[in-house]
Amino acid sequence: MNRRIINRRLDKAFKILGIASTVFGLLVLVVLFVNVFLEGRSRLTWDFFSSFPSRKPELAGILSALVGTIWLMVITGLVAIPLGIGAGIYLEEYAKKNRLTNFIEINIANLAGVPSIIYGLLGLGIFVRYLKLDRSILAGGFTLALLVLPVIILSTREALRAIPFSIREASYALGATKWQTVRYQLLPASLGNIMTGIILAMSRAVGETAPLITIGALTYIAFLPQNPITFLEKFPFIHFTLRGLLDPFTALPIQIFNWVSRPQKGFSTNAAAGIIVLLGLTLAMNAVAIILRHRYQKKIRW
Amino acid sequence: MKKMLTLITLVLLSWASCLVQTFADTKVKVIKIDGSSTVFPITEAVAEEFQKKYPNIKVMVGISGTGGGFKKFCRGETDISDASRPIKPQEVDVCKENNIEYIELPVAYDGLAVVVNPKNNWVNYLTVKELKKIWEPSSQGVVTKWSQVRQGFPDKEIRLFGAGTDSGTFDYFTEAICGKSGSSRGDYTASEDDNVLVEGVANEPLALGYFGVAYYEVNKEKLKVVPIDDEDESNGKGPVAPTLETVRSGTYQPLSRPIFIYVSTKASQQDEIKKFVEFYLKEAKNLVVEVGYIPLQDEAYQAALERFQKGIVGSVFGGKGAQVGVRMDELLRRER
Description:
The structure holds 2 protein chains of 2 kinds. By secondary structure, chain A is mainly alpha-helical. Helix content of chain A is 71%, strand content 3%. A two-stranded antiparallel sheet of chain A has the order 2-3. By secondary structure, chain B is α/β, with parallel strands linked by helices. Chain B has 13 helices and 11 strands. In chain B, strands 1, 2, 3, 4, 6, 7, 8, 9 and 11 form a 9-stranded mixed sheet that branches. In chain B, helix 6 links the parallel strand 6 (159-163) and strand 7 (189-191). Classes of the chains: A mainly alpha, B alpha/beta. The A-B interface holds A 52-55, 134-135, 216, 218-223, 226, 236, 238-243, 245-248, 258, 260-265 and B 15-16, 18-23, 25, 27-28, 30, 32, 34, 37, 40-41, 43-45, 47-48, 51, 58-64, 72, 77, 193-195, 198, 214-215, 217-219, 287, 290-292.
């Protein structure tokens, strides 16, 4: 056998190995999904979405958990997105390259890899105990915001870095200030990638259980946080309140965790149905990320 | 056009801003309960029924373990604490420091079931001594075969499944069997999630495990329960299996225990909490059975209700923590 044949065979072997690993990953996912789907499918009725948790598995639903998750995502987004993009822009465009910046950069990269339960402990110490927010939506949202912040900062920086330097030079050459360059050139060009990063980070946060359990959100809750907007019969017709932010909450992963540990069989069906909803939510968010990236990439013409 | 839009927006905004009452609204009453995962299903069931009857009072029930529950309770963060054992001295001290007084109310009985795989045909009963031999710390790595437990048992490996160290079940089992809370061998499959233990014992022919009776009841066909002989004839001769009757009458010893709620006296003065606790003690009898636990006798609930209404503070156990072999009649006597 000469060298050439050996190399060709090696090439083939590697190809097969590659295919095998890809198929393996997919297969696990498919088995998992089919398994959960078959078990939980029967519970996916309207009642399941519109009922509160209950001791009777066939009456139990995810209303308070779903609403809690939506509230959490809104708070997390409102806090983490502006802070994350702001910090990313500063570090990439404004900050001088010195020791301090280096130090901050390394720490942010490290923070992105910190286990989520640590953020839970941080949230418990700062938001729940010190700021006395109690086990409220606000405390939960802030905690998750801390969790996704490093990821958003990093993806913002990556997105900005991907823009050719010549764009900045061209902008400055036309007399634009730094802010104008960022506002009219860099941000529009990188928005697609930034959004993708944000949504991926958020869809990670949706499924987080550990930090929420740490701040004490593992609870039976059969009521909703106060609605921010209520319609009245007389002037001024609409009533706004942010009181709901301080209400206790539960979230999807927590509800699932609770159901899994119950003895009665019916609860594991509920848990499976809950997992389908959570998976659906995550997949939908990922789909949005892909669509956004696609659209923004097409639009840019220099 | 643009100016018009700005104007309209401004008007709308100013109108809206006069409506925004951020955090100034009066707080809606939420009854906060936290604590033992063992008591959780009962309290959850009561909360569910209670909120159907009083839709304006909100109840939240958390799970953080008996110890974790008392930590929050003694800081004044919760109104009621679920507990699968009486309060411990350290916890009493913390409560005292923070001026938290409490009323202790028994709500049900819980039994721990010792189970083996249905294929196991050699174990018909075990004595407390034999259980101790299996579970005590010095057995770690030494008692590894069934034949070491009793002569005549097969010379096969023994596979152990038990509660994780964070659970009240672990505290109670070790106290009852090994004589000291928390003293146990470490080389066994431990989980805070009892379903993991159920599956473990159900799939392993050489297994022995323990967990709450509620989990045995719903998995009866997959498990074989082991009757326990405490070799004390005063509470039933010979081996006794956990059933409603044996746990209630105190013959299933030492693996049955009362479980409690602790109500903070400050909270008990509020109308909502008063309503809730009274509702709890009245409805417990039916709801307890529904979620797989064993109810106290009617007189015990009556006694507990009186205790609450009179506002008798403190623990009948003198704040000493878990005690083994507390019997119904004894508990009743202490209640009065």
